[in-house]
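Regression test case RT-17, inverse folding.

Input:
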C-alpha cells in the first residue's frame, strides 16, 4: 500500500467528514496499469474538489493540488502518464469552473459527492495496488 494512497484517502475522508461521469479517453501505452481508469477518475475528482472547495471558502490552500502532485510523483513514471494525470486533474477543475461561479447548495452537494467517491476509489486502489 503506497503512502500517497493512504494520504490521499485520508484527505478525501477528512474532507468528506468536514463537509458531509465524465468519461476519459484511454491512451494505451506500455506503462499502462490495470487501475488507470480509477486513477484518472481520482485525478479528475481532485481537480474538481480543488476548485469547488476553494470557491466555497474552505481555506484548503493548495492541499488538493498537493495531493495531486504526490499522486503524480508516485504514479507518473513517464511523460505520457504525467500528461494523462495532469489532463484528468485539469478537466475536473475546468469543468466545474465553467459550471459554478459562486458557492451554491448544488456546489456543496457536488463537493460531498466527490469526496465520497474519491474516498471510495482511494480505498479500492489501496486494496488492489501492491
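Golden output:
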Amino acid at each position: 500500500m503506497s503512502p500517497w494512497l493512504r494520504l490521499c484517502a485520508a484527505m478525501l475522508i477528512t474532507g468528506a467528514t468536514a463537509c458531509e461521469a465524465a468519461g476519459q479517453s484511454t491512451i494505451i501505452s506500455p506503462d499502462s496499469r490495470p487501475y488507470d481508469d480509477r486513477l484518472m477518475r481520482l485525478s479528475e475528482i481532485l481537480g474538481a474538489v480543488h476548485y469547488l472547495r476553494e470557491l466555497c471558502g474552505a481555506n484548503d490552500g493548495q492541499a488538493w493540488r498537493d495531493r495531486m502532485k504526490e499522486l503524480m510523483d508516485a504514479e507518473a513514471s513517464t511523460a505520457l502518464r504525467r500528461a494523462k494525470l495532469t489532463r484528468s486533474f485539469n478537466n475536473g477543475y475546468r469543468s466545474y469552473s465553467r459550471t459554478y461561479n459562486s458557492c451554491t447548495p448544488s456546489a456543496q452537494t457536488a463537493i460531498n459527492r466527490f469526496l465520497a467517491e474519491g474516498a471510495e476509489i482511494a480505498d479500492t486502489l489501496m486494496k488492489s495496488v501492491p
